[in-house]
Design brief:
By secondary structure, this protein is an alpha/beta fold. It folds into 3 domains: 161 residues, Rossmann fold (3-Layer(aba) Sandwich), CATH 3.40.50.970; 158 residues, Rossmann fold (3-Layer(aba) Sandwich), CATH 3.40.50; 189 residues, Rossmann fold (3-Layer(aba) Sandwich), CATH 3.40.50. Helix content is 39%, strand content 16%. The strands form 3 sheets. It has a 6-stranded parallel beta sheet, with helices on both faces. A 6-stranded parallel beta sheet has the order 9-8-7-10-11-12. A 6-stranded parallel beta sheet has the order 14-13-15-16-18-17, sandwiched between helices. The protein is globular.
């Protein structure tokens, strides 16, 4: 069979359901091979949209999402999604085309060394130079993409190789069992926990797996140790749990950090230094037990005293079995801090002013969205408010990016979440800046007949940078712009556009959109004027309760 036929067959062997992308001239053999495959081709309007959808598929399923682009500019448009998947720990395979290796008559037209371009931002990148190697290449790429820590891989298929004959051979998809943690490490962790007076549990992105969620919930239930999480660790444990203290939406100096600073031991589960730090370690401060699939990467603000390396769920289950609640533990201060955190976060949550405060928007969306609803975020200052104020009830029910923290991913990730979870309500919240970076994917969402709600928080500016600019004492300069009429823009794609003019109208519009078929875009005017006073000035003046 042709190499391209064998490539598609190898993808089928891996259980691939979708390929997202934009084919080019150099992909035509592959495209022809795909037409009779059960794999569905999802045509997008930009390679970034395809890459973000593939990465989100990997994040939600644990299986590599696959995306396709041509050579040159098509491949370079995959760079940001590659970094998004690699830093975010999302398994993803990128397939790109290339000019013929053996006889090209177009000189260097559109030629970029894509393999070397991808090398720093992937776990594996390879050009196929002979059809006989394609099946092994695909199997190795999938193995590496899913191996902890998951990430991005890339295969380049030149058009002349795609058309060559290849031997029909498949490789069995083998299941890899992750090793258990060393017994000595487990015993040392137990000893440190028994000797602690005020231990805390931190849940990071690496724990956002179903088995780990069950194991960590059982650990909390048995030991009673309070927990907090990173932004990407939200939902691993139901945040309605009485032991939940809050989310470290900032790295330092939030009210939650009053509790963190009093802890003498932190069990840090699933965190690595790629995600923005939830706290800063200091010499003489709390000791840290690092529980993860790999040893800790040492950083000036993160240098754990103990690594418990192995499958996270298994490690936590073993700790749960061996550890009993200790009479010497005292969590009373943590719960006093929790009351203070909740009091601070509830302020403005039901404020009815318009344009809406972000705290009020978060509260309204949480009230309207089902328990199993999925919320995806683009990147902007509103992400801080969702991380602090939005309670998650299930793992991967809030998809935000606190690793690469790229703009433009919110809409494609929401589309993918709805595509593979058609029975669940999905809302994608974007700033006006981030939405416009991949707004053309509205056409893809409409064409796929998705029932999706897109909320644009509109302040006609790059609000995150304006907040930082004000916090550094600089003048307001260079960050304001004009936007299109978002209602007409949505309608031009065949979507439903809405522009509520009050808090009550937004509540009504959101309720209607969640219960109505089709793609709904809600343009919501947002008021960020209190960000500086609350997140900069107010936190600097905070005093931890006694």
């Amino acid at each position: 069979m042709k190499t391209s036929d064998l490539f598609v067959k190898a993808l089928e062997n891996e259980g691939v359901e979708y390929i997202f992308g934009i084919p080019g001239e150099e992909n035509l053999d592959f495209l022809d091979s795909l037409k009779d495959s059960p794999i569905k081709l999802i045509l997008t309007r930009h390679e970034q949209g395809a890459g973000f959808m593939a990465a989100t598929y990997g994040r939600l399923t644990g299986k590599p999402g696959v995306c396709l682009a041509t050579l040159g500019p098509g491949a370079t448009n995959f760079v940001t999604p590659a970094a998004y998947a690699q830093l975010g720990g999302m398994p993803m395979l990128m397939i790109t085309g290339q000019k013929p290796l053996k006889s090209s008559k177009q000189g260097q037209f559109q030629i970029v060394d894509v393999v070397n371009m991808m090398r720093p931002i992937t776990k594996y990148t390879k050009q196929v130079v002979h059809g006989s190697s394609i099946a092994a290449t695909v199997r190795e790429a999938f193995r590496l993409a899913t191996e902890e820590r998951p990430g991005a891989v890339h295969i380049e298929l030149p058009e002349d190789i795609a058309a060559e004959d290849a031997d029909d051979r498949m490789y069995q998809v083998a299941t890899t069992r992750r090793p258990d943690a060393d017994n000595t490490a487990i015993k040392t962790a137990i000893k440190m926990l028994k000797n602690a007076k005020m231990p805390l549990l931190l849940v990071g992105a690496g724990a956002n797996r179903k088995r780990a969620s069950v194991a960590l919930t059982a650990f909390i239930e048995k030991t009673g140790i309070p927990f907090f999480n990173t932004q990407m660790g939200k939902g691993v444990i139901d945040e309605r749990h009485s032991a939940y203290l809050g989310t470290a939406a900032l790295s330092d100096n939030d009210f939650l950090h009053c509790a963190i600073s009093r802890a003498d031991l932190i069990i840090n589960v699933g965190h690595d230094v790629i995600e923005k730090p939830p706290f800063f370690m200091e010499e003489g401060g709390a000791k840290v037990i690092h529980v993860n699939f790999q040893p800790a990467q040492i950083d000036p603000v993160y240098f754990p005293q103990l690594d418990v390396v192995g499958d996270i769920a298994t490690s936590i289950n073993r700790l749960t079995t061996l550890l009993e609640p200790q009479q010497g533990w005292d969590f009373s201060y943590f719960y006093r801090v929790k009351e203070e955190v909740q009091k601070r976060l509830s302020r403005y949550s039901e404020d009815t002013r318009f344009p809406m405060l972000p705290q009020s928007a978060v509260h309204t969306i949480r009230e309207q969205l089902d328990e199993d609803g999925i919320l995806t975020l683009d990147n902007g200052v509103y992400k801080v408010w969702f991380a602090r104020n939005y309670l998650c009830y299930q793992n991967n029910s809030l998809l935000l990016d606190n690793a690469l923290a790229t703009m433009g991913a919110g809409l494609p990730s929401g589309m993918l979440a709805k595509l593979i979870n058609p029975e669940r309500k999905v809302v994608s919240v974007c700033g006006d800046g981030g939405f416009m970076m991949n707004s053309q994917e509205m056409e893809t969402a409409v064409r796929l007949k998705l029932d999706l709600v897109v909320i644009i928080l509109n302040d006609n500016a790059y609000g995150m940078i304006k907040w930082k600019q004000e916090g550094m004492g600089f003048d307001n300069f260079g960050l304001d712009y004009n936007n299109p009429d978002f209602v007409k823009y949505a309608e031009s794609y065949g979507a439903h556009g809405h522009r509520p003019a009050s808090h009550a109208e937004f509540t009504e519009t959101l309720a209607m959109a969640l219960e109505t078929k089709g793609v709904h875009l809600i343009e919501l005017a947002v008021d960020y004027s209190l960000n500086h006073a609350i997140l900069n000035e107010g936190l600097k003046e905070k005093i931890c309760i006694l």
